[in-house]
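Proteins fold. Shown next:

***
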Amino acid sequence: MIRYRGRAVQYGELWYDEEAPAAPDVDIMIYRQRESPLPGVSASPFLSLVVDLSLEPAEIRRHFGKDCRYKIRRAEVKDGLRVDLIADPGGRLDEFSAFYDTFAREKAVKPADRQWLRAACKARQLALASVSRNGEALVWHAYVVTRNTAWLQYTGSCFRNRDNDYRALIGRANRWLHWSTMVWFKERGITRYDWGGLFEDESTPERSGINRFKKEFGGRPVRTYDCVVPVTLKGRLWLPLRGAWRSRTTLRDFVAQRLSRAC
C-alpha cells in the first residue's frame, strides 16, 4: 500500500487486487483500478488499455502495428540508444522529476508529484525506466508495480522546438522503451502492462494522437473504477470539505479561462 500525507489527512492507495491491511493507519483509502466498484461507495469509471504479458515475447510483438515494429527494430539496431531499467529508484527520483518537470512546463501540465513518488518508492511499488543517447536522456517512464500489473503513471519526453529528425528519433526511442519495459516486467513475473488510461473523448488531435500511439501496441480496452473510502472520523469529515474546495477551484479556473479568452 502506498501511504502519503494530504492537506489535512493521511491517504492510502491500493491498486488492482490489493487488499487493505487490518490496521492501515490512514484516514482515507483510495482504491485504484478495481474491476468492479465497491458496494455502496461512489465510484469513478476509468478507461484504459492493457497488453497481455503472459504471452511469449514474439506473440506480444506480433500484435503491434507494422510501423511500430519497424520503428522498434530501427531503435534497437541503428539509433545507438541505451535503456536503463530501474527497479530500486530511490536514488534517481530527483533526476526523473527534473526531466519530467521540464516536459510538464512545455506541455502545460502538472509537474511530478514528488511526495507521491517518494511514497510509492518507499512502498517498493515504483519502477523507473529511461532511454538515452550519448548520455542525453530522451524519454523517462514511471510505473506503479503491483503483484501482476505495471501501470504507466508518468511518461515524458522533451522534443518541442526540435527538428523533424530529432522528433522522429524521440518517437522511436519511446516505442523501444515501452517494448523494453514490457519484456523486463514479463521477466519479473508481471502479466499485465496497463497504459495508464485512454481518452474517451478524441475530439482534439492531441487526444486522438495519444490514443493512436498506445493502440499501436495492441492490447485490449478495459473499464475499471476508482473508489474513495473514509476510514476514520477525520476522513469522513474531510471528504466533503475536499469536494467543496475542488468544486470551487474548478469553477474559479473556468471563470479565469473565460475572462482570459475575452481579453
